[in-house]
Amino acid sequence: MMKDRLEALRREALDQLETVADAAALNDLRVHYLGKKGQLTEILRGMGSLSAEERPIIGQVGNEVRAAIEEVISQKQQMFDRADTARRLQAETIDVTLPGKTPSVGAVHPLNKVAQEIEDIFIGMGYSIAEGPEVETDFFNFEALNLPKNHPARDMQDSFYITEEILLRTHTSPVQIRTMKAMNGQTPVKVICPGKVYRRDDDDATHSFMFHQIEGLVIGPNIRMSDLKGTLLQFVREMYGPQVQIRLRPSFFPFTEPSAEVDVTCVRCGGQGCRMCKQTGWIEILGCGMVHPKVLEHGGYDPAEVTGFAFGMGVERIALLKYEIDDIRHFYANDVRFLGQFARM
Ligand code: PHE
User: In sequence order, which ranges of the chain are alpha helices (DSSP H)?
Assistant: First the structure.
């Protein structure tokens, strides 16, 4: 009787297991047939009423039925596990041959790049870097540079005033005075001063109300105009190439005497004459001169003891020439199509 029920249970269980659909259903069947409150336990509970001879026989049949069902369950379990692994391998496969997404990398702004290059050249010649405020006093921006109030040369640098006495600096030359004062009469002074400057100009292809300058100042006993010339020649050759020549044209700045404007041989045509240099073969790049005695005095130096030279250049201008850019406004528009071109230069 009990043996028949066990055999029937075996058949039923194996039948069900034959068509089990997934791991969850398999687990349900396992609980149903083999669990603590399952069918097999239910049948074997009746063993108590069996005779002593029957008991071991039925016990053995019960064990065989359990083993047979467990065997099939474990086969099915392995089958589902393999199928699951295969499905995940398929779903999570990475196609390493797909083209990647190129990360967009930023670039140093061309003006910073050129400013850094200029700084590096002068640092290589033993200069150090000095800085000053962009909001400046009339004294440092004009007065101490030998440009007294109502001096007509002030017209060269139309300014943004905050009060009568405070303005946005129109050039980096006030840093000359600040540096001299900080040096307290000591020599040598050998600095370059990079920074932003402001002028009341209407913006166009070659003018901007804000631009960048780098000032140079050297003071010591017996500094001569030939030192200035040699320094500038060395600078332009490192900047534009060893074939470049310079020429100095007499000019006027209230804070230098004598003063000169410096031209380089045209970076595009090499001096033949082209549209860029207006057929002259030369391009103006900076202003310079020997520091005016009155400026030395304002800075706390005795013009009988020391002399010096100074120069000032526009970073935009140097960059326009270097990269043959035709409009200064490109520098400020922040168009990534323009800026991206300097990423690998
Ligand atoms: N500060 C002058 C300018 O902005 C340039 C300059 C600097 C000239 C130093 C001579 C010496 O035009």
Answer: 2-18, 23-34, 39-44, 54-91, 110-124, 138-141, 174-183, 225-240, 293-298, 315-323, 330-333, 336-339
